[in-house]
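Bench notes, afternoon.
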Amino acid sequence: MPIDAQARKFLDEQAALETPPLHELTPETARANMRAGRHGLVSTGTVAWVRDLSAAGPAGPVPLRAYGPEGSGPHGIVMYFHGGGWVLGDLDTHDAICRSLAAASNCVVVSVHYRLAPEHPYPAAADDAYAATCWVAEHAASLGGDATRMAVAGDSAGGNLATTTALQARDRQGPPLKFQLLVYPVADHDFETKSYLENAEGYQLTRNAMVWFWDLYVPRISDRDQAYASPLRASDLSRLPPALVQTAEFDPLRDEGEALAARLQDAGVPTKLTRYDGTIHGFFRHTVTFNQGTRALEEAAASLRAALGGG
């Protein structure tokens, strides 16, 4: 279907800013631009409390921000890994969506600020994501949460980290995760898929930007085939928690996200795939700008409530 009017308006407004392409920026400038853009994001719903914490990580403390829903617990817990190509993003850039998700799902949401590339290349982000999940499982009661009802979630590179955390938990007998929320996840390093070629330019996230992200996060090409970098290339996706995979029609990552959903289904993992037609990468965080973002948030929250007993 054609791109929807809200996405078209958003793209036109972004083009009018005449910002240089992401792949031509330094990581520091790109990070500053993403932080500046967070001011246009608005949370929906109300949380009872917000708490900044830190988890014990493999290379030092991992900053966390926990959001508690209203009502008595214990609540299910959602580990949320922010997007940004493993290079950009932080607790503030994804504050609004984590607040919204906590309120809508009736779960404690714990946002994780893993180490970023290129200063900390692969597997630093994946290591931090798993370590933070283990730490929160051990300290769930102090957050009003239930360690037996945990999920992993994330958008884009955060979706990659969510499913690789699930893989690590399976492989290392870690926390018994109940669900995966994978929002337009990075699942592979193949830049020649149909969606990469069709949506290479003009739809916010570009093919060149993804090449830039991968070059910074996993500079050694041979490492990109590893399951904790490209989960679509994992030899075994069985015994993972049920998943909801959400994709966008005009997104270079569409095909790999949908291929991951198919692989999970083939491995016997209960998986729902929802493609949001007419929209672009990034729509999930823009719940005010995109009606599709509101619908995706509602679907995600309903799935989390069902999986984690959030009411």
